[in-house]
């Protein structure tokens, strides 16, 4: 079992809860390792992952008590952050970040690495790095400009303002901001929808959207054809069509 996270599986949904509430779930070495471990050893019954935090914060980024000025940040990023991010962006099932409170520094970019980000309205996103003399890492300089454009990315990163969940949703940085009293039920419903969905199609969508940023339209059409070919051979496609014709809800198995 884990020291810095909680990990539980229910009805096909694995919930990974960052659990160092006294420091707003700051990422230390143990937590990075445990997140990576949990996401790279998912049992086959898991069809969706929810990433969230204990207490009033989602994640405050790098644990600043654990990073002396002498620390070799490049080495830490390469050895610990990159595998953790790869475990999210390459997770074999879709990942929802359920941002229950402030997400700062690498904690913001950890959330933004998920496939879908849903925040509670009292949450906020802070590219806090320049406050301590650093640059955004954990994929932030890749995902943020793609989501919100250069002007907003620059403003967020140079000024380190707290961006409210609602602002983040209006800008397209995240999928949705939910009223606090609807957050838990909203997350559960979305997680169930993903866990009962066509997993292969979800992963192919992730791959196609990621590729769209670095290739031209002919190459993208080629990729779509290839991925759709695979989807067309899946049991879930056969089931989806059969269910439609029989006027009943589909029962997808993720195969
Ligand atoms: O390896 C490397 O170093 C490279 C990687 C770098 C990646 C990074 O993430 S760098 C950016 C690191 N994160 C930050 O700079 C954010 C620091 N935290 C904050 O700005 C604020 O705490 C928050 C905006 C997140 C929350 O503010 P607030 O006012 O709601 O809460 P608070 O009172 O500041 O925090 C509560 C406690 O958590 C407090 O401890 P205390 O006083 O009750 O004993 C605070 O010190 C602690 N805490 C918050 N963030 C961190 C932290 N302790 C260690 N590390 C943290 N990042």
UniProtKB/TrEMBL annotation:
Keyword list, A-Z: Isomerase
Highest taxon listed in the record's lineage: Bacteria
MF terms (GO), sorted A to Z: isomerase activity
Keyword set includes Transcription: no
Keyword Transit peptide: no
Database matches in InterPro entries: ClpP/crotonase-like_dom_sf (IPR029045), Enoyl-CoA_hyd/isom_CS (IPR018376), Enoyl-CoA_hydra/iso (IPR001753), Enoyl-CoA_hydra_C (IPR014748)
Stated family: Belongs to the enoyl-CoA hydratase/isomerase family.
Name of the protein in its database record: 2-(1,2-epoxy-1,2-dihydrophenyl)acetyl-CoA isomerase
Organism of this sequence: Paracoccus liaowanqingii
């Amino acid at each position: 079992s884990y020291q810095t996270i909680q990990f539980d599986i229910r009805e096909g949904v694995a919930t990974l809860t960052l659990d160092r509430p006294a420091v707003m779930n700051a990422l230390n070495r143990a937590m990075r390792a445990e997140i990576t471990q949990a996401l790279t050893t998912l049992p086959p019954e898991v069809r969706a992952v929810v990433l969230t935090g204990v207490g009033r914060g989602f994640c405050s980024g790098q644990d600043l008590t654990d990073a002396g000025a002498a620390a070799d940040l490049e080495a830490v990023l390469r050895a610990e952050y990159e595998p953790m991010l790869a475990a999210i962006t390459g997770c074999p099932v879709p990942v929802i970040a359920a941002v229950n409170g402030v997400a700062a520094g690498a904690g913001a970019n950890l959330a933004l690495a998920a496939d879908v980000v849903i925040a509670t309205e009292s949450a906020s996103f802070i590219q806090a790095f320049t406050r301590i003399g650093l640059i955004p890492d954990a994929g932030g300089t890749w995902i943020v400009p793609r989501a919100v454009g250069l002007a907003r990315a620059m403003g967020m990163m140079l000024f380190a303002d707290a961006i409210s969940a609602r602002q983040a949703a209006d800008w397209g940085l995240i999928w949705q901001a939910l009223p606090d009293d609807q957050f838990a039920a909203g997350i559960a419903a979305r997680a169930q929808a993903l866990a009962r969905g066509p997993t292969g199609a979800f992963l192919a969508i992730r791959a196609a959207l990621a590729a769209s940023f670095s290739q031209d339209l002919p190459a993208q059409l080629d990729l779509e054809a290839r991925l759709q070919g695979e989807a067309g051979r899946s049991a879930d496609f056969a089931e989806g069509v059969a269910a439609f014709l029989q006027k009943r809800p589909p029962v997808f198995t993720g195969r």
